Predict the 3D structure of the following.
Amino acid sequence: MTATTAPRATTASTPTITRRRKPFSPVRALLYVFLTAMALGWIAPLALAFYASLRPYADTAEFGYMSLPHQLSFQYYKQAWDADLLKYFVNSLIIAVPSVLLVLFFASFVGFGISRYKIPGRKTLLIMFTAGNLLPPQVMVTPLYTIYRNIPVPEWLSSSGTLYDSYLGVILIHVAFQTGFCVFVLYNYMQTIPTELTEAALVDGAGVWRQYWQVILPLTRPALGALATLEFTWVYNDFLWALVLMSTGDKYPVTSALNNLRGQFFTDYNLLAAGSVLVALPTLIVFFVLQKQFISGLTLGANKG
Amino acid sequence: MTASPQINPKTDAPRTGPAPSSRTGPVRERRRLRRLTGRDIAVLSVLIGLPTLLSLLLVWGTTIASIGLSFTNYNGVTPPTWAGMRNYDIIVTIYEPFWRAVRNNVLWLGFLSLIATPLGLLLAVLLDRRIRFGRFYQSAFYMPVVLSLAIVGFIAQLVYSRDYGALNAMLGKTANPVDWLGDPSINIWAVLIAVGWRHAGYVMVLYLAGLKSVDPELKEAALIDGANERQTFFRVVFPVLRPVNIIVVVITVIEALRAFDIVYAINSGRNGLELLSVLVTANIVGEASRIGFGSAIAVILLLTSLGFVIAYLTQIIREDRR
């Protein structure tokens, strides 16, 4: 995305790098107008949420959300923070970090295995994983609840003594569920990596594990980065599983706990806006930090070799 | 690391690995597996077996159990009793919210695939044209994607609120305000726009990544051959994007059938915002605890998804065979 000042190259010998942006034209101006209008419209709801979170309820109740502020403060953020939001953030990390790591590890290995070896039933495996991720989670809720209540787990892993109401239980269903999507993506991705590479490694005497760890995994890193971003936000943003599989409110991840800011009879939406902004913050940070890798990541997939 | 002696004889590369040692088992005749040692097979079995087991038990096992439960009366306390097809019968004939939920799920899928997804593709195509501030536009469109749908639901309430909402203020409807989320004849559309807001950005980023990976020479060749930009896109670029297209279709369908969080955050999925997923949860988790009945709705949702899933999987298999 850097502007070049080199003269426009017309010969085929200098293809893409030195080719300049097209000169300015009315069509192009229209393009910018359209994109800018769309982009502003896209940001507006978020900006509004942030703006609302800075204003006291009385102010917006009287003048509406689209009015000039009479008073701005971080009061609601303090209030949300005082509701022990930090604790729930930590809970979210306890669930999301192991889930994402396990999902990526398992999915990359399965993708590697079924794309490189003639494993019996590999097509069935691919179908099982991919289709499993497409099933509606609601179908699993009741039996899962029953199973979890009956699986004992050592005390140090779960204070309830069973998988129910434990972080491990929530992590396991995330892993089981999300691995499906990642297997599908990574399988497709790895198929674009030339088999000569693993064959060369094989010639060098590398076993399955080394082919996976030293040859395929480094080449898959961009896709893994992209999937890590996606999976982190998905697991972090989930509230169904925690709601259904946990009973102790103190263990809830932050997305599920956000509902606590909702009063039983009266909801202060400005407080909820502040809570929403805080809850969205980690995913927004992940997004901005990993965005470059994310964008360049998926690109490697299609035209490898 | 043990080297296998069955190395492709055509490659003459120098052998730098350690000498072949522990070969276990007879030489396999299968094309690739014959080069595997016992240890290789152990690694493959364990690391593929574990996630397979998890998926079989927690995803597939529970799904099949739900199918079984859907033919019973079960309240979660007393043992289930056989009900045959009665739950299904009640759902399609008497249970009033059902058809509204079906309609909303269909609208959801239609809106995402006919409006939000093409919009995402359009944005991607526009952003792919070496424009200034590309990163800014891209970030703006993609930002909602990282938000949870529950949060999108909360934000939607700020925008759509009847009395204080930004939308009514912008449209100048403060005197005669529209209740965007409370009016059951329009609220589904208001929600769909919020959902599309998030979905289009997602689709855009996937396509943008795909477009950047298309070999520029391909486009240039098409242009030299006299194709205009439109033809180049639809005849050359779009077909090359096939892997992205598949992922986009999958995501669109998943989102439409799984939709739950946003309506749950707005009004728990009532009053015009019924969805199949909400009805399932309401019956299973709610006070009624009609687990058999809820499971039957879940099975209907499952069967709907299975239609898409099967269509899509046959696609993959065909693809793979090529």
Q: What stands out?
A: Chain B has two domains: 1-64, 86-321.
